Amino acid sequence: MISHIRGTLATASPECVVMVGGVGLELQIPEKDRAILTRSGGEVDFFTYLYVREDRLTLFGFLRQEDRELFLKLIGVSGIGPRIALAVLAEHPATRIVQAIRGEDHAFLCRVPGLGKKTAERVVVELKDKLPAVDVEIGAAGPASALREEAVLALASLGMPKIAAQKALEKIDWGQVDDSSLESIVREALKHASGV
């Protein structure tokens, strides 16, 4: 299995292609990762999973290992293929999805494209006790701690030092930004980091 690749980002959209040793590898990636990569270049690291079918080999890539681990758990659920599993990870951090599964939050899961009520219930039944507990707290101001960590990682992937990223997040007026959207948070943090 190809579990990790490092290479140069050739393009992130419409397909993600990473150049490794002179070979362009096409990866299927979550949309939240694509949003980060469209604003970056240079060397990238992906945690990967090679999905093998009789007629096709598909390489799935994730910027965070916890996303890959949850993806592998999801495709083990009856009725969940890799496309749906990727859609589940499209917008939210793995910790938020794990919280929804363990908390039997069917309403949250049903908002995922391709994940109907019965499938969401199956995901909860099959994975609830197989996923580790996560501590996702909502502060008085700002996003859940997991989403804040995602934002720091996203900013770091754009070349910003971690401390600078954390300071930029502290400067955000959380009343004026969609604190459930990673892209909105990163965009706002970049404004503060550049002094806009």
Number of helices: 9
Query: In which order are the strands of the major sheet placed?
Result: 1-2-3-5-4
CATH topology of the largest domain: DNA polymerase, domain 1
How many domain regions?
A: 3
What is the level-2 CATH architecture name of the largest domain?
Orthogonal Bundle
For the CA atoms, what is the radius of gyration? 17 Å
Principal-axis shape: flat
Strand residue content: 15-25%
Task: Give me some keywords for this one.
single chain; 3 domains; DNA polymerase, domain 1; 5 strands; OB fold (Dihydrolipoamide Acetyltransferase, E2P); five-stranded mixed beta barrel
Explain this structure to me?
A hairpin with a 2-residue loop joins strand 4 and strand 5. This protein folds into 3 domains: 4-62, Nucleic acid-binding proteins (OB fold (Dihydrolipoamide Acetyltransferase, E2P), Beta Barrel); 65-127, 5' to 3' exonuclease, C-terminal subdomain (DNA polymerase, domain 1); 145-193. The chain has helices spanning 31-37, 65-75, 82-88, 94-102, 106-110, 117-127, 145-157, 162-170, 182-193; strands spanning 4-11, 16-20, 23-28, 43-53, 56-62. The chain has a 5-stranded mixed barrel. Helix content is 43%, strand content 19%. The termini are far apart. The longest helix is centred in the C-terminal third of the chain and has 13 residues, at 145-157. The relative contact order is 0.11. Mean pLDDT is 83; it is low at 135-141. The chain contains 9 helices and 5 strands, in the order βββαββαααααααα. With 196 residues, it is an alpha+beta fold. Helix 2 crosses helix 3, helix 7 packs across helix 8 and helix 8 (162-170) crosses helix 9.
